[in-house]
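Intended use. Records like the one below are meant for learning the mapping from a protein sequence to its folded structure. Do not use them to infer anything beyond what is encoded.
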Amino acid sequence: MKFLKPLAILAVIGGLTFTFWPNKKSGGRQPLAPAFEAKAEKRDILETVEAAGFVRAVIYSNIRAEVSGKLQKL
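Structure written out for the chain above:
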């Protein structure tokens, strides 16, 4: 009888793991929106926030240059 409770807990954990494990056929999580590229441009901000406290972005993006090649001279 002592082993019945841990066995039941293990069965529940195994069932939940099996249910929520990512499906390899579908490729896992899909992005919420498709990615796109755009040329950087300078323009005015059209939206303003009037509030006390901190304002922070919900989604962050890393923007960096992708450069490859050999150095000719240093």
